[in-house]
Amino acid sequence: MPVHHALIYLVTGAFTGLVGAMLGIGGGVFLVPILTLSLHVPIRAAVAASLISVIATATATSTVNLERGLVNMRLAMALEMATSVGGLGGGVAASLFTTQQLFVIFGATLAVMGVVMAMRSKRRNVIADVSVAPGVLGGRLQEGETGYVYRVRRLPLALAASLVAGAISGLLGLGGGIVKVPVLNTFCGIPIRVAAATSAFMIGVTAAASVFIYYARGDVVLPVAAAVALGALPGSLAGARLSQRVEARALKILMAVVLLIVGGRMAWEAL
Amino acid sequence: MSSSPAGLARLEDAIEVALKGGLALSTLLLLSGLLLGASGPLRWGILLLMLTPVARVLVVAVGLALERDWVFTLICLFVLGVLASGMWVAVRR
Fold first, then answer.
1. Model ipTM value
2. What is the per-residue pLDDT for B1?
3. SS3 assignment, position A138
4. Which residues are A141's β-sheet partners?
5. What are the contacts of A153-158 at 24+ separation with CB within 8 A?
6. C-alpha to C-alpha distance for A7 and B50, rounded to whole angstroms
7. Is B40 on the interface with A (CB under 8 A)?
8. pLDDT, tens digit, 9 for 90 and up, residues A108-167
9. Which sign, positive or negative, has the C-alpha torsion A162, A166, A167, A172?
10. Which of these, A160, A197, A260, B56, has the minimum number of CB atoms within 10 Å of its CB?
């Protein structure tokens, strides 16, 4: 591989890692299109490289978020049951839909989520009264001097979203955070930072459910995957630290913009 | 019975060690593989990175079992089972 190619992959990985870590998504939603459309990497190799980069992002981000106490481990484990099954099942479901149908369904869903997220960006999920019990899956959150409590609502919806997120991850090489984070934040009562940190904690496991199958198929092009993953590491460490300084509302708006762009682009691709 | 806050904090430390260890070693392998143009270190670096989330779930399962948090230990074992079946499908190909 020529040196300038390696550098392009590194920079691409760093960019997707940065945005991915801030929003708790793996960054695969950007990585797969960039690799296939701009850098002409075959789709399967791009998906495989993306899954590996998702693992790198998830791992690096979690080392930062665990220290900050932002990861809700119990919730992550409960939802991992659904995402890992979805991830493994993704390949089976692939034969039921054409890629075009998948793109349309996926794109439209994301665009709708983006609009909902933007409309609700002012709403806060946290309860300022710290004496409220968070419940088995809820938790506490410290923002500067102020402590907050949040409770998990609509767990079945969170589980269903995680299953879908897992399936999409296995099919398209994403982490699945692009589905989970908006649902957890908008409908399930989880603060955006906790939703992002908990999603980032989970997406490595989601990706690991299908990545070995891609590896065995010979889809992992070593230098490409290595360069992208190496870029994703510093990118996501920076993103995890940066997200702490950004206001919750700004994070939600960034997420809404990402959803609209990615959703619109995917739907466009299918038409 | 569910795990204590202190137990959970200990577990988070153990997870961090597992994640950081996996990252440091695979970064080293990937970097040397790319710089030397050698596929051996690249392959091992990628495999190690792929195994890091599996190791993380394993650490959580052991930690929660030590805490006697059986419900969440079972949940972890279930996830491990799913990951193992993914690997099994991969190996059989």
1. 0.90
2. 43
3. coil
4. A148
5. A153/A187, A153/A188, A153/A189, A154/A187, A154/A188, A154/A189, A155/A78, A155/A188, A157/A183, A157/A187, A157/A188, A158/A75, A158/A79, A158/A183, A158/A184, A158/A187, A158/A188
6. 23
7. no
8. 777 887 887 788 777 777 776 667 777 778 888 777 777 788 888 888 999 999 998 888
9. positive
10. A160
- Tell me the C-alpha to C-alpha distance, in Å, between residue A263 and each of A29, A96, A186, A224: 10, 21, 17, 26
Mean pLDDT value across chain A: 83
**Closest-CA residue in chain B for A90?**
B86
Residues of chain B with pLDDT under 50: 1
H-run or E-run covering B20: helix B5-36
Min CA distance, B24 vs chain A (Å)?
Answer: 10
Contact between chains at A52 and B76 (C-beta distance less than 8 A): no
Is A6:A238 a contact under the CB 8 Å cutoff?
no
A67 touches chain B (CB under 8 A): yes
- The residue written with tokens 């930690």 in the block is B63
Q: CA-CA distance, A67 to A24, in Å (whole number)?
A: 16
Amino acid identity for residue A126 in this structure: V
Q: Cβ separation of B82 and A215 shorter than 8 Å?
A: no
